[in-house]
Design goal:
576 residues, alpha/beta, Immunoglobulin-like, TIM Barrel, ten-stranded mixed sheet, 14 helices, 25 strands, disordered N terminus, Glycosyl_Hydrolase_39, glycosidase, hydrolase
């Protein structure tokens, strides 16, 4: 291959003799792990002349429960890597920014001690830990989704018990302690929010803070909020008023409900939206309340069937579609940005694989192929409902000082990137506008919404084009977490105007961009050596399937055959 590549670079063209061999090597049809398949290739056709508008970077949004991991050793490392995924700023959402405590990090817990009171009940504001968290974001060019919550101990209507010590395997309901209750004084709460926004402007500047999203609470329709729907709406009025008083141009939104396809979520969501449009504001007495963006969550539902993890992407897409439908039913709100505040294959990032076997997809390539396939369909569902999808938050970060590859829903383990992070690196390389992919493939967004992926695999693509390149992400996904046979793919890119193009083919599968498989081959060491850690870090990066090469374009069309393993993802980038 190096000799052929040098020939291409030196001559600037490929002779007919070399063309077939170079394409075969570059696109994987004879790579070492791909076997010849008698099956008919899946024909994926990309038309660069059919523009579908800008590819919004909805994937550049991340979040996690434990805010104090932000500035710890592996947290800072991972945030640096996330910030470098692409040219656009990455948005970060974390819980517990107003929780009382000393900043000790633990699973499903975080604290900043931003608000306490003296013996006379006078407020004491302390922004030290919040600043440490936000400084870590800002230093990396990241944008906080400033979650206003949860309730400080001194303001809670039921402060005790307050601190919890949950761990995987414990009753999940044990986490909902004094921080989940309404305030005993809404005016003190409002002043706390006002002072926080005002401090942020003083520290970071008005222009910077105007680029953030401020939101109230998390999943208030379940036990994260121990008040009533009406009390949450009242709290929102006081919160929005405080944010806008401190910075009239700030963006405020909510309500961050769980999946709108749940009856309890839909009821809460519609009550909130009705109030925004026609309710009486608890602060001003006027009709309605400020809102600049709308948020809700969407989760899948894996389970173990006959010893095999079976995902359910359809459940997640139904949540998303129902949320879009609800927003679209309010004409005055339909065009507001929508942020899917948590958008994941299931619900509990800190519920480890060792205790929750349905989560055994997280370390390997199923998580990465699921992510590729599901994110592509979010664009399609938003387009079909005519709504403005701005972002979809992946609720997965890292868990400091835990066992290697324990099976949390995270992007890295002990500073080593997992395969799923490489899908986001692929997304970051996709620039410009979306372009058309043929619609006669086995699945589309509506079919997966209704049926999930239970029959043949979902082999499909997302494609983009800018002035000097085109990128095509291709995945081979199935709900069943088994390593089935690979599939031959025939990728045809139409509408190229260049006579020759530089082609790079990146891959995530069992052998490429996969630290987990390397770790297992090492014998799954509980304490890898420094040399092993270096090898794992290298394996955790996005890797090329083969060396890049120049390829001649015939009549504006480039056809590329390759084998794509089950749960594999390819990114083909063509530059000119």
């Amino acid at each position: 291959m190096p000799l052929l590549r040098r020939f291409c670079l030196q001559t600037g063209h490929l002779s007919a003799l070399f063309f077939g061999l170079v394409v075969s090597v570059a696109f994987g049809s004879i790579d070492s792990h791909a076997q010849t398949s008698p099956d008919k290739p899946v024909a994926i056709q990309v038309d660069l002349t059919k523009d579908k508008g800008p590819l919004k970077p909805i994937w550049a949004w991340f979040g996690y429960d434990e805010p104090n991991y932000t500035y710890m050793k592996d947290g800072r490392k991972l945030l640096t890597e996330i910030s470098q995924l692409s040219k656009v700023p990455v948005n970060v959402r974390v819980h517990s920014l107003l929780v009382t405590g000393d900043g000790t990090a633990a699973l499903k817990w975080g604290s900043t001690n931003a608000y306490t009171e003296d013996k006379a009940g006078n407020p004491i504001y302390n922004w030290t830990i919040i600043d440490k968290i936000f400084d870590t974001f800002i230093e990396r060019g990241m944008k906080p989704i400033a979650q206003i919550g949860f309730m400080p101990e001194a303001l809670s209507t039921k402060p005790q018990p307050y601190r919890h010590y949950w761990k995987p395997g414990d009753n999940y309901n044990d986490i909902y302690t004094g921080w989940a209750y309404p305030p005993k004084d809404y005016k003190k709460w409002s002043e706390l929010v006002y002072q926080w926004v005002k401090h942020s402007v003083q520290r970071y500047g008005q222009k910077e803070v105007e680029s953030w999203y401020w939101e109230l609470w998390n999943e208030p329709n379940i036990s994260y909020w121990k008040g009533t729907t009406e009390e949450y709406i009242k709290l929102y009025d006081y919160t929005a008023d405080a944010v806008k008083r401190a910075l009239p141009t700030a963006k405020i939104g909510g309500p961050e409900v769980t999946g709108p396809n749940w009856d309890v979520s839909e009821k809460f969501f519609r009550a909130f939206m009705d109030h925004v449009v026609k309710g009486t504001n608890a602060v001003t007495g006027k009709v309605g309340t400020p809102i600049d963006f709308i948020t809700f969550h969407a989760k899948g539902a894996p389970k173990v069937v006959n010893g095999v993890v079976q995902m359910n992407m359809g459940t997640q897409l139904r949540d998303i579609d129902k949320g879009f439908a609800i927003v679209a039913s309010y004409p005055s709100l339909k065009n507001l940005p929508i942020i899917i505040g948590e958008s994941d294959p299931e619900g509990c990032a800190a519920c480890s694989e060792d205790l929750h076997p349905q989560n055994a997809y997280r370390n390997g390539t199923m998580y990465s192929s699921y992510t590729a396939a599901s994110f592509a369909r979010k664009y399609d569902l938003a387009e079909a409902r005519g709504v403005n999808l701005a972002g979809a938050v992946t609720w997965g970060f890292e868990f400091e000082d835990q066992a290697w590859f324990r099976g949390f829903r995270d992007l890295a383990t002990n500073g080593v990137d997992k395969p799923v992070l490489n899908v986001f690196r692929m997304f970051g390389m996709m620039q410009g506008n979306r372009v058309a992919v043929n619609t006669d493939l086995a699945y589309n967004a509506k079919k997966i919404r209704d049926e999930s992926v239970r029959g043949e695999p979902d082999i499909n693509a997302l494609a983009t084009k800018d002035a000097q390149s085109a990128s095509v992400m291709v995945w081979n996904y199935h709900d069943d977490n088994v390593q089935g046979p690979g599939s031959p793919v025939s990728l045809k890119i139409n509408g190229l105007t260049a006579k020759k193009v530089w082609v790079q083919h990146y891959r995530i599968d069992q052998q490429f961009s996969n630290s987990y498989e390397v770790w297992k081959k090492m014998g799954s060491p509980k304490a890898p050596t420094a040399e092993q850690v270096a090898e794992l870090e290298k394996a955790g990066q996005l890797q090329l399937l083969a060396s890049p090469t120049w390829v001649t374009v015939e009549k504006g069309v480039l056809t590329m055959p390759f084998q794509l393993p089950r749960q594999g993802v390819s990114l083909v980038k063509v530059s000119w």
